[in-house]
Amino acid sequence: MHPFPRIPMEPIKLPCYCGAIRQASRVVTQVYDQELKPSGLKITQFGILRLLSYRPGLTTGEMATALVMDSTTLTRTLKIMHDNGWIAPQPGADRRERHWHVAAEGQARLDQATPLWKQAQKRFAQIADGVDLDALTRMVHGIAQRSGQALAEETA
Questions:
Q1: What phi and psi, each to the nearest 5 degrees, are found at residue 91?
Q2: Beta bridge partners of 60
Q3: What's the CATH class of domain 40-124?
Q4: Helices 71-83 and 43-54 meet at what angle, rounded to 10?
Q5: Helices marked H in 12-132 — which ranges?
Q6: pLDDT digits over 82-107, tens only?
C-alpha cells in the first residue's frame, strides 16, 4: 500500500517553451507512428523516404539541414533504413560523401505508407479540431528557420 493515493496523470502545462513543444511533438509522433505501423515505418523514416523521392541524391548533411535534424540521429536512422534495404548510397566526389536514393524496397514501403500517412493527417486534424493547422505549420516552420539561422550565426 502506497502512503499517497495514486492519482492518474495527465499531460501538464509546462512553462518551458522547449518542453512544451517537445511534449506536443511526442504526442503527434505517437499518432503518426501508430497509423504507419502496418507499413513498418516510423514517421521519421517516412519523412526521409518522401524527401529522397522528391530530391534523390541528397547527402546526409543536406538531409540534416532540410529536416532540421541532428546529423548523429540522422546517421543512425539512415543506417537502419540502409540495413533494411529501403535506401541506397552512391559515392560522391569525396569518398566519404554519400548521395542517398530510395531503393525499390523503400519505394514499396513508401507506396504502402502514403495512404496510412494520409489517414494520420486526418486523425491528427480531428484531434486538433479548432486549430488552424495551416497557420500552425507555417508558424512552426518559421520558428525552425529562424532558430536554425540564429544557431548558424552563433557558430560562425
A1: -65, 150
A2: none
A3: mainly alpha
A4: 90
A5: 17-36, 43-54, 60-67, 71-83, 104-127
A6: 999 999 999 888 878 899 999 999 99
